[in-house]
Every structure is written in C-alpha cells, then in structure tokens.
Amino acid sequence: MGKSEAESIGCSHCGEESFLKREPVYDGFAKSGEKLSCAGCGHVFENEADVPFKGRGGPSVFTDADRSADVDVFAKDEKGQICRYCTNYVVNPFTQRCSLHFKVVDATDTCPNFEEKKED
Q1: Where are the extended beta strands (E) located within 1-120?
Q2: Vertex 46, ends 45 and 48: CA angle to 5°?
Q3: How far apart are CA 72 and CA 23, in angstroms?
Q4: Is residue 91 part of a domain?
Q5: Disulfide-capable partner of 7 in 20, 61, 70, 92 (CB 3.0 to 4.6 Å)?
Q6: What residues form DSSP beta bridges with 27?
C-alpha cells in the first residue's frame, strides 16, 4: 500500500482499531529505516511482518453485473475528417491552405470533401 494512504490496523498492544504510523529513522543525514507504530497508543512494531493489518480489501457491495458497459471513445478512426490528414492540405512556413477550396485553413478544421492522405 502507498505510504500516503492510511493503513488500518488492529493493534495487538491496546486492542483498539487504529492506524499505522510510519516515521523515518535517520543515521546522520541518510535514511536508515522506518519506525512503525500504532497511532493510538504508540506501540512500536519491530517490522512490517509483525503489524496486524486489518483486511486490506473493502466490502464487496457491487458485483460485475452492476458495472456499466465499457465505453470505447476511440472506436472510429481518430483522424476523422480534419484537414491535417487531407490530401489537399498544404503547409508552408506562414500559413496552411486548402488546395481544393483555395482558402486558408487550420490543421483541425473539418471538410465534407475530405480525401485521406496516403502515407508513403
């Protein structure tokens, strides 16, 4: 479990339901380990194997039948009919033009006369 998440324990020393408190232990300026203790009574556990964690999984209220169907956002071709992928799209350093309609366009404009550019 990530260190930023609260970890529920059933403390073997005080018998209460509490949280695990993690504190770094330093040897000079170098981290040499971690002190694991009960947030309620302060009892220190020797190592992580000695910590009496509560059930890590929560109650299963919902089943797979309750889940919604997967939504496939990109089911169609992502390129669509935007000018960037059209045969008639002409790029130069100053502007982009449509050679079919002879007008200035942006790469994300769309057109009903779209002709897909063939990749070499």
Answers
A1: 8-10, 17-27, 30-38, 44-45, 89-91, 96-98, 103-104
A2: 75
A3: 44
A4: yes
A5: 20
A6: 30
Q: Taking CA 64 as the corner, what is the angle to CA 59 and CA 67, rounded to the nearest 5 degrees?
A: 100
Entry field: residues in the chain: 120
* Token duo for residue 35: 């002190």
100's tokens: 């079919």
Q: What is the pLDDT of residues 3-21, one digit of tens each?
A: 546 788 988 889 889 999 9
Determine the structural domain holding residue 115 and report its residue range: 78-120
* Cα dihedral sign, 111-116-117-119: positive
**pLDDT one-digit tens code per residue, 47-98:** 888 888 886 555 678 888 888 888 777 656 666 788 988 999 999 889 999 9
Query: Bridge partners of 53?
Result: 9
Count structural domains, the chain. Answer: 2
